[in-house]
Amino acid sequence: MSHEATAVLNTPSAAAQARAAKRLDPVSEPRAVRWLLTGIALAFLAFFLVVPLAAVFFEALRKGVGFYLESLADPDAWSAIKLTLTVAVIAVPLNLVFGVCASWAIAKFEFRGKALLTTLIDLPFSVSPVISGLIYVLLFGAQGWLGPWLQAHDVQIIFAVPGIVLATIFVTFPFVARELIPLMQAQGSDEEEAARVLGASGWQIFRRVTLPNVKWGLLYGVILCNARAMGEFGAVSVVSGHIRGQTDTMPLHVEILYNEYNFAAAFAVASVLALLALVTLALKLLAERHLAADLAGARDAVPAHAGPAVTSSNS
């Protein structure tokens, strides 16, 4: 059998191609199916997202605005709010520095141990937050490996603010790096190399070339990191000691109030977390829009650089 005949037999018929295109085209689906799928998605979001958020604000204001403000002005609640924001202010910039350095090294350089570093960055995603808290108790607790030395030098990490900061850093440090690595890899290193040839220093290359290209991905990672830092419960619960007015963050304070059957006050503090989550969501949507545009621009730029290189090699 000739090659032409084999090609004809292996080529799908026009009818088969039309049927495949129809299956892949979502517009060709019956209207009832589209409405059903859309309705299921909206019902799912309403049941698991909108209704719980509305219930939080409803319960927070059940006893009136005066009681709501009084609950937030409570010294223990105010201390929990301040501690939560303080921990986020410390943890997020540190993870920002780590994320930028790690992503730049992974995306721009080849070195021994690169695969191991990439794997370790994902470690907090696979480890339970409670386990991460126990790790720090094992290291820095009174009976831990470094506990006697810390006690001898009057340094307290567990059941104090430093332990909360360390636990928060551990559970949040992948977010910035995981957003920047694929973005930097997609953009390549042509622009950095051109700037280096023109005499730019490493800092100038980062500030004027790399950073503008990844700024929205960086913001997106910072937003996710900050949201997780303010809402973290498991790891912080293990290392904090639940000392009211001292080591209780907002999630821990909500649990304490709820266990004491002080539901209105618990939902009042929870509403602050919900408001912060809504603000984070709005910023996340803004960053996602610009990040998608940056990724599309990086993909469109690849053929422009690849074309001349292939032509010159074939000449």
UniProtKB/TrEMBL annotation:
ABC transmembrane type-1 domain: residues covered: 81-284
Cross-referenced InterPro entries: CysW_permease, MetI-like, MetI-like_sf, Sulph_transpt2
Subcellular location: Cell inner membrane
Entry keywords, A to Z: Cell inner membrane, Cell membrane, Membrane, Sulfate transport, Transmembrane, Transmembrane helix, Transport
Chain segments annotated as transmembrane: 32-58, 78-107, 119-145, 157-177, 217-243, 263-283
PROSITE patterns: ABC_TM1 (PS50928)
One Gene Ontology term, aspect cellular component: plasma membrane
Mode of membrane association: Multi-pass membrane protein
A matching Pfam family: BPD_transp_1
PANTHER family documented for this protein: SULFATE TRANSPORT SYSTEM PERMEASE PROTEIN, SULFATE TRANSPORT SYSTEM PERMEASE PROTEIN CYSW
Alphabetical list of NCBIfam families matching this protein: 3a0106s02, permease_CysW
Name of the molecule in the record: Sulfate transport system permease protein CysW
Naturally occurring in which organism (per UniProt): Burkholderia ubonensis subsp. mesacidophila
